[in-house]
Write a structure and sequence with these properties.
The complex is a heterodimer. Chain A is α/β, with parallel strands linked by helices. Chain A contains 4 helices and 4 strands; from the N terminus they run E-H-E-H-E-H-E-H. The radius of gyration of chain A is 14 Å and the shape is globular. Chain B contains 8 helices and 11 strands. Chain B starts with 6 loop residues before the first strand and ends in a 6-residue tail after the last strand. Chain B is α/β, with parallel strands linked by helices. The chains are: A alpha/beta, B alpha/beta.
């Protein structure tokens, strides 16, 4: 979506969430962030979390001001007609093949929601 | 009434200072107090996002303005619901702030994206910026936050409950059972009658409106009138419960 933005950032993993505060707290540098949000705030949240790219799902397209802001920050925004579940599954498979030492991000056991 | 002295107080319980990154930098403690005086307010609640760091400054300056300050903060729960949390003293609010900060992600604010987080001292002088990222959620759910406030003798009021973003009803769709809150704040764009028509289950709660002011011009733009013996948090809670003639009313539009 963002003209002039290079798509060569190294991708280390992925994170799916539509709760912006959750992304701020838990997305890691180099993640591809998959969301249905198109609001301008996704650029700020993406930059804060240093994600490699934002993938917007379900055929949603952000407004021009969001695209402009992301382009200005050098943050790639990609849009897909696929659902979050589908695109996450496909990217996960690709990532596992591309990165032989990809570490599965599986917590050791159930945790209480309020920590 | 037992012949006690009872008076009406004009209260705007939801005002941000320049510590909130989304608030205007003109929201200094002194400027807020002056504006509150001019708007005829008796009580203001200071509720910055996830922080109480400007309370000491504004409480120190408030006697000169003849304004009573309620010591609050607006906590964002992990469901992204906003809750006004009030305490009797600056000390109690700062103690609660310690808990809140321990539950925030260890990330720094980025001024360019979210705005600056200005901190003032008890003389009202700018002393620096809060580095902790404030515009995010604590890792504690709504019930845990409200219970913790109640346990500490404070007063929890979910803010702008009707709003789709960060409002209790907008985010969760209904009010969970057994929530320890003293009242609900509805947006100033809504009358209590409209709110009760849209959400039947809010009728069992006391309602307040406030300005949620992020700039000086909005202070007092919405408020409640409280009939109580003196302007204190304890009296306000009794007024919300309607104890011994005390009460809290939302003035009609245009007031």
């Amino acid at each position: 979506m963002c003209p002039g933005v290079q798509l060569d950032a190294e991708v280390k993993g992925g994170y799916c969430s539509d709760l912006l505060s959750d992304v701020m707290a838990n997305a890691e540098e180099g993640d591809v962030w998959i969301t249905l949000h198109t609001h301008l705030n996704i650029v700020a949240v993406g930059m804060l979390s240093k994600v490699a790219a934002i993938v917007i799902t379900g055929g949603r397209i952000p407004e021009q001001n969001v695209i402009d802001r992301a382009a200005q920050e050098g943050l790639p925004i990609l849009c897909t007609h696929l659902s979050t579940f589908e695109i996450a599954g496909r990217l996960y498979q690709m990532l596992k093949q591309a990165l032989p030492d990809y570490e599965e991000d599986v917590p050791s056991g159930p945790t209480k929601s309020q920590g | 009434m037992r012949g006690e002295l009872v008076d009406w107080y004009s209260c705007d319980l939801h005002v941000h200072t320049a510590l909130s990154p989304c608030a205007s930098e003109e929201m200094t403690p002194a400027a807020i107090l002056l504006e509150a005086m001019e708007r005829g307010l008796d009580v203001i609640g200071i509720c910055d996002h996830n922080s109480a760091r400007n309370l000491e400054a504004i409480v120190a300056l408030s006697p000169a303005a003849g304004i009573k300050v309620f010591c609050g903060m607006e906590v964002q729960t992990q469901e992204e619901v906003h809750v006004l949390c009030f305490f009797h003293t600056v000390r109690e609010a700062l103690d609660f702030q310690d808990v809140v900060y321990s539950r925030l992600p260890k990330k720094k604010n980025v001024r360019e994206y979210f705005g600056s987080q200005l901190v003032f001292d008890h003389n009202g002088e700018l002393v620096g910026e809060e580095e902790q990222l404030l515009l995010t959620s604590v890792s504690a759910d709504l019930k845990t936050v409200c219970d913790e406030v109640a346990k500490r003798g404070g007063m929890a009021i979910p803010s702008h409950v009707d709003r789709m973003a960060f409002g209790l009803l907008g985010v969760l769709g209904m009010i969970p059972d057994g929530l320890s809150v003293s009242a609900l704040e509805i947006s100033r764009t809504l009358t209590p009658e409209e709110a009760k028509t849209r959400w039947k289950d809010i009728s069992r709660f006391s309602l307040i409106t406030s300005s949620d002011a992020h700039c000086l011009g909005d202070i007092g733009a919405a408020r409640v009138q409280a009939l109580m013996n003196h302007p204190s948090l304890s009296e306000f809670r009794l007024a919300l419960m309607g104890i011994e003639g005390r009460k809290v009313v939302i003035p009609g539009r245009g007031l």
